[in-house]
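Lab meeting minutes (informal)
Scribe: AK
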Amino acid sequence: MFKQAALRKLAGLARRFPPNSRLAPRQDVVGDVAPATPADLPATLAPTAVIASEPPALDQSPEGAAGLWLLHTKGPYLLARGGDRVPPPITANIALTNKCNLRCEICGSQKSLDLTGSRRRHSDLDRLKSVADTLFPFLVTVELNSQGDPLLYPNFEDVLKLIKKHDCEIKVQTNGTLFKDSIIDLLVDMYGEVNISLDAVGPKFDAVRKGGIWAKAEPGMRAFLARRDPEKLQVGLYPTVTKRTVGEAVSIVEWSRDVGIDTIVFHRYNPLPDGMSIEEPPTQDEYDTARAAVHAWCVENNSPLNVHFEGERLNPDPVPSRRSKFASAVKQSFRRYYIPPSYPVDPGLPGADPVYVCDAPNSYVEIGLDAQVSACCRSQDIALGYATSVEAFADSWFGHNYARIRHSLTRDYDGQYPLPNCESCVKFFAPNSSCGRTAVPYEGSSTVHPDGLSLAIDGDIVLDQIVPFEDKVYRAAGITPGIDIRAFDLVEADAPLTRVESLEAVKRGPSGCYFFTGRTVFFTTTDGKDARFSFSRRRYALRSKAVSDRGPGHDAPADRERPIVDQGTDRVAAL
């Protein structure tokens, strides 16, 4: 429960900063809820507070959303650091594990982690508790969707307790094979949504979800759906449409109707690089045929669930949400200041922010396995800071790197993106807003660019994404931009390797040498063994020369606050 002092401050701030809408209320939302007033705040704070339906999303002005900061015991500090002009994120995706029990052909992250031999691990629970103390007081939703399946996390119950303690909602993505009774007991007690990655039912499920068995998975899903309260927990499906599964669309919709699924969002398979997967996207004719069949089914059956193909709703009329209970009425009321999508949207389309092409850096934050802060799910390889304390989070959220990223995503900005991932993402999701813009080229011996990111790295940068290049030479790409690589050594275990001046020198040179080019390092191991962690059990990392010069055993202070940075995608994994 929130303290009354914080509520009085919140009410005072609401009077000081009335909403100044940049966007009219959404017309597709059924029902509305007014912001809580000082008179009715205590009555709306019950953990099981009931609201008629999801409140509409309005303007995301810093003034309107600033009151969320005051739900934190260090709210005044956060406001003083910049919270009076930058709103808090209302959603954080927390990485719990990079382990998964399946090996699906559609999963690029799984494929990549297997190829690179990356470490399979869980997030440290004590570190997660620090993240919860830092972020959860002002978060509305905690998303659990990491590289692996979050239901495999051994301390899953503890994580849900932390979420409940702070009256947050959950958003869980799972593969549908892990609904055992103990997991169901935990989930049905929560508020929010659970999304299941399900591309086929019956025998086809066994074929496309490698390691999954429909006869074992379906009873668990049915048991979960039978026990959940649809007024507090929504359940959706997220099928990937491939050449192998395009004919399964109607079967998926029929099964979903029978078991009580609320929403299905079909999305087309985005092919992995050549040779990584046997999956293929459907042809346009196949895709159109499947879409037409599902649309016809929705019309004929007066569909009781919302069905979407990409962003297009196929049922003639939207099905009202059955959700009416929320973890916190006060927190839910703040949704009106946030634009729902956390991805780029062209102007004029539903959910488009009038100021920002992409609103993710204002409303969403990605937290990696080591509590590193990233701007979104597509930029997990770039740590902008840490969420291990309020002070550390404030350093990043209100810092110059985030400011540059936000400014680069305003609709009237025509310069380069400081965040490399923005270039391809905007081109894909909002092509009319791309206008030929490119990302800052982090190239050359120094990767510091006047308009780019400027990152101060505290500790080692661990290279997890290592792949064979040729004849005992290995490559690790995607090194953190915004650092001067001249200030770093490559270390094997705890020993610096030898820097050389070209790739050719690496190929013909002595064992244990390396060469930097742009955001990539090429190297050989000291003993000729495979450099990937799953083979060598050794760690390769970039280490500041100042630390390297002190010799082995001095990689970082034992009591340092910030953990090592993993150079990887932080979103999928394997056992």
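Next up, CB showed the second protein from the same session:
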Amino acid sequence: MNIFKHKNKCEQKYTSYKNISNKKGKEKSSIKVFRKKNHHKDSLAEATNKNNDSNNDKNIRKISITMMFCFLIPIILIITLGIFSYKLASKAMYSKYEESSMSTVSSMQVSMNMMCSSISSKVIEVMLTDEFNSYYNSNDISSIKASEAASLSGKVNSNLSGVKASVDYISAYYLFAKEGSVLKTNIKSLPIGFYDSYLESEEANKFKDSKVTNAWVGKHILLDTNLGIDEDEYSLSYVQHFTSLKNSGFIIMDVQAAYIKELLSIMEFGGGTIKGLVVDDGVEILYKEEKDNKDNIISNEYKVDSPLLYNQDFFNESIESEGLKYVSIDDEKYLYVYTPVGKTGIMLFALIPETHIIAQIQGIGIVTIIMVIVACVISIGIGLAMAYGISSTLNHFCKHLVQVEQGDLTQVFSTNRKDEFKLLTNGMNNMLSGMRNLLTSVDKFSKKATGSAQDVSMATEDMKDSMCSISKMIDDIAQGVVAQAEDTTQCYESMTRLSCELEEINESTNIMSQKADETVSVIDKGKLIVKELNERTSVSVNNTKKLVLEISTIQGLVEEIGDILKIIQGIAEKTNLLSFNASIEAVRAGSSGRGFLVVAEEVNKLAKQSKEAGGKIKKIVTNITNATCQTVSSAKEMSKYIEEQSEALEDTNNVFGEINEYVIELVAALRKVQENMDNIVKDNKNMVDTIHSISAVSQEITASVEEVDATTLKQVASISSLTEDAENLLKEVKVLEESMGRFKV
């Protein structure tokens, strides 16, 4: 790794030096390019002036057009102001109209709520009378005498009639109960059991909940059908449900349709407005505002085939609150103003067509448009008048200026205007007077400048020739110095590469020396390992010999066991013979020898078992003997192999010793080589530094020569430019003289 790092450092030094040399070469080439700069300045300037003059002639625009464009800005602002004012007024009128509509509907809601509260309170007053409680809330109506019942029901009827008479908008009343007389303003009779029929109808579903005791409905169809009541006679009905321990019934009060129409007619919003009530049972009471022949707003009943508002999404969202919103019905947009009438379940609303609101705002729009048009016409007229006056005066000036452009400086400007153009006229006359005096002075100066320019031109030609000679000599010196610097650079590069290679060799030698030292240490470790292995091998040989002796001892003991086994077999044979003799004697003895016969049989069995056991032991001893012989043979062979291995380890130890001696000699030689390489590297570094210093001095000399050369070239360029300027001055003086000849002073 150290070798490669040093090699990279050497390559970086070589690359940086090469870049410095290339940079110097580039600077020299840039100095040569400097000689060619600023060659066509005057010709380019002259061409540019001509192009500007032609472009100015093409881009002329009349001042009247410019002023009209300027007047368009306030006109646009006036139009923008009109649009903005119209939008603000429209928004304000929308807001005011919405507030007024909401206020009107809220006021009507108060009147409707008072009407409903009045009817409900009148009904409650009737229910609280003694006559009503004594008759309809009695525990047993059937026990009341007929005369008394007729009297009580008559008084209740009189009370209801009094309510109807005192409240002029009540058209009819109806009272029917489970038990008791039916009271009504209609002459027709209700069928028996009508209460039960009404209680089972959909109209009475809400009263099945004990918490609901009264409600406002739009129609009572079952009652109308049985009594032949025209639905157009009433618009609303108040239903009161009363209950007692043994009786219950209903009181119904109808509100006149004409009164509701009259009440809703008070609200006027404009033609096309739909207003009315939506009752909790889904009945819609609708009126539409229309104009009669005298353009008066009248409210006519408005009938539709299907509900206009009921169950609509916007209606369901507005049931429990008041407010306003814009909704679309049948592709027409309306302002929907709504408010609930207390807690009656009635919704008071108005649908005002948005076109009606827009029609009221259109008047403001027309006035705004007229004012904007008048302001625009006035602005355009003023602009045209001002543009004409200014344009005519400027055209008069332009005619005189054309004469001045052609060289006639005797022109005199005049105007009848008393504004800034009068000042402009005086200024231009003064300018022409100054120009006449200036041209007289310029004519005198041009004659003197001609002589001076000729003298300068001759002097600069001589200086230019001298500087060119100096520049040529400096170029020759620079070429020699550059060649010397290139040779020094090549030598430095070669020495740098040689230095890198020597340092690589030195690093390699160091590595070899280190590896040799490591090899010596490894050999020492190997010798120790072989010595230890040899000692362990000796121990193994001794243990093997001991094992052979012990196995031989075991083999002798096994032979002794065989001898003992033979004795046991002899004893078994004799015991068997003894048992046989004992059996014979027992037979001879008869019955008295039976016990002896049993002993003889047991002894016989013992003899057989001893013989069998002896046979098994013999087999085991034979197997042990065979295994012992094989073990002894293997142990002897292993002892032989271990002795041979011990001899091989001793030979290996000797070889390690010889390798160690050779490596020690190699290390000593490498160290001498390393010392010599260190001296060579030091000498090489000194040589590289010396060549580097020579190269740096050569580069400095080259840079100095190039700077002198560049300075000389700049002087030559300056003198050339001065010469060209002198020649151009002569040309300009001649042109000036020719131009001066055109003017009349």
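CB comment: The longest helix spans residues 420-589.
No objections, moving on.
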